[in-house]
Specification:
This protein is mostly helical and about 210 residues long. The strands form two sheets. Strands 1-2 form a two-stranded antiparallel sheet. A two-stranded antiparallel ribbon has the order 3-4. The protein folds into two domains: about 150 residues, dinb family like domain (Four Helix Bundle (Hemerythrin (Met), subunit A), Up-down Bundle), CATH 1.20.120; about 50 residues, no CATH class. The mean pLDDT is about 95. Bound molecules: zinc ion. Zinc ion (ZN) binds next to helix 7.
């Protein structure tokens, strides 16, 4: 696993990519569908802001030892996305920016010992707090592409894509997906269940799309 030093840098880069995608969207295009089936761009941004706050709870947990789960309930997570989707684009961009900064600032104060404190993710996995910058990197990088506003898997750092493929394969199960060929960025998009091109199985046939992951 990468050190927080690397993943914190990816987190910042993913945040910048999201802002690049959002920059210049007018209110209509901000409210338009994202590449994630059933999600508007506004809902993706509301989810990202809610995710920053949720991961902030894990950072609080690591710092204080007081168990603070990411979300109080699955309903709370959904409500944040639904209600956030009705805000103006300006409000959403401000919320995204502020929540990302608050999270980065909170992480910057963690000591070595606090980074190794155990916390529980929304999926119920117990992980050291040092995994939270990776969890956030995945969100901001992949959803920057999902916004469908100019950022592509091809634009994401090569080392990040390598780590993401390994992570998805672990999560999906090595045997649950076929061996594929293609540009590494496209193979990553394929594994993530995102739009891709030129990914083939060993017999040369186009790979069957996988359901979205994350
Ligand atoms: Zn997400």
């Amino acid at each position: 696993m990468n050190t927080p030093h690397t993943t914190l840098a990816w987190m910042a880069e993913g945040t910048a990519l999201c802002l690049r995608a959002l920059d210049g969207l007018d209110e209509t295009s901000y409210g338009a569908p994202s590449l994630l089936p059933g999600w508007s761009r506004k809902q993706v941004v509301a989810h990202l802001a809610g995710n920053a706050e949720a991961l902030g709870n894990l950072v609080h947990w690591a710092r204080t030892g007081e168990p603070t789960p990411m979300y109080s309930s699955p309903e709370q997570r959904t409500a944040t996305i639904e209600s956030g989707g009705t805000l103006s684009g300006d409000r959403l961009t401000a919320w995204f920016t502020d929540s990302a900064r608050t999270l980065a600032d909170a992480m910057a104060t963690l000591t070595e010992e606090q980074w190794s404190a155990q916390v529980v993710t929304v999926q119920g996995r117990t992980v050291p707090a040092s995994e939270t910058p990776w969890m956030r990197s995945r969100e901001v990088m992949v959803h920057a592409v999902d916004l469908g506003a100019g950022v592509r898997f091809m634009d994401l750092p090569t080392a990040f894509l390598t780590e993401l493929r390994a992570d998805i394969l672990t999560r999906r199960g090595q045997n649950a997906v076929p061996v594929t060929h293609g540009h590494p960025a496209d193979v990553t998009a394929y594994l993530a269940g995102r739009p891709h091109s030129g990914v083939t199985t060993t017999d040369g046939a186009p790979a069957e799309p996988l359901p979205p992951w994350m």
